[in-house]
Amino acid sequence: MDIDAAFATGRPEQTRHAPPGAICNQDSTKTPVISSVASIFEPPERGVKGGGPFICGVDEAGRGPLAGPVVAAAVILDAARPIVGLDDSKKLTAAKREKLADEIRARALAWSVAEATVEEIDTLNILQASLLAMQRAVAGLTLMPSEALIDGNRCPALAMPARAIVGGDASVPEISAASILAKTVRDAGMRLLHERFPQYGFDRHMGYGTPAHLAALRRHGPCPAHRKSFAPVRQLMLFA
After folding, report:
1. How many Cα atoms occupy the beta-carbon half-sphere of 39 within 13 Å?
2. pTM of the entire structure?
3. Distance between CA atoms of 200 and 3, rounded to whole angstroms?
4. Are 71 and 61 in contact, with CB atoms under 8 Å apart?
5. Which residue from 58, 75, 128, 189 could staple onto 124, CB 3.0 to 4.6 Å apart?
6. β pairing state of 110-116 and 70-76
């Protein structure tokens, strides 16, 4: 079963020239490296269209689930076209996320969404796969940012300076926007996976290890969309 193809079908339009298997317009190294982590003490400067510097926010969705890829987004906002209501995607309703995602795609100076596959997660580990997805998202931007602001406490190796900001998805608009795009694209992909594997309920829990998902795993065993390196899935395979 081609999980990548299932996840690609029906995605919203992304940045131009996206290669097969990714949603960004360029691919980066397959070996992500964690760069040095810096703290942020004051709000960054934000450029407007035609000026600079351009600041991009970066966030991911899907580190914790037992199934599906990890998805990352990078966004450069336009200060001349502000978006009201940006926040950590986890604090927003699904309807509000979708509305804001449409606004972000329409108003941002540049945006890009990319993923690391289930196979890459199982090969690299989830941290390195998340950093890889972030690298791909930043590489897919049609504008070169002067700085990348990353949600969390680790930065991927990028072609520009990067700062890690704990809680950035709730405090930095660029990161909030990235978190919303990553979440909405991943959720759409998981709903498509549900059409292929309806016995697991991916459309309800998005691959997270809920009691219903774990019960379905025990009943049916893992499918190709499951992360075999994650303990609940690995243990079922050992005793199957």
Report:
1. 1
2. 0.82
3. 15
4. yes
5. 128
6. antiparallel
Beta strands (DSSP E) in the chain are: 34-35, 55-61, 70-76, 110-116, 147-151, 155-156, 162-165
Residue indicated by tokens 């406490």: 153
pLDDT tens digits, 176-227? 999 999 999 999 999 999 999 999 999 999 999 999 999 999 999 999 999 9
Give 21's DSSP letter. Answer: T
Residue with tokens 């680790």: 154
C-alpha 222/C-alpha 236 separation (Å) is 8
Strands 162-165 and 55-61: unpaired
148/138 Cα distance (integer angstroms) = 8
**CB 200, CB 94: distance < 8 Å:** no
Q: How many residues does the chain have?
A: 240
Q: Which two tokens stand for residue 200?
A: 């697991």
Cis peptide bond N-terminal to 53, omega within 30: yes
Asked if 200 contacts 217 with a C-beta cutoff of 8 angstroms, the reply is yes
Domains, the chain: 3-238 (3.30.420.10)
In 3D, which of 119, 134, 153, 12 has the Cα closest to residue 72? Answer: 134
Tens of pLDDT, residue by residue over 130-152, are 999 999 999 999 999 999 999 99
- In three-state secondary structure terms, 53 is coil
CB 25 within 8 Å of CB 15: yes
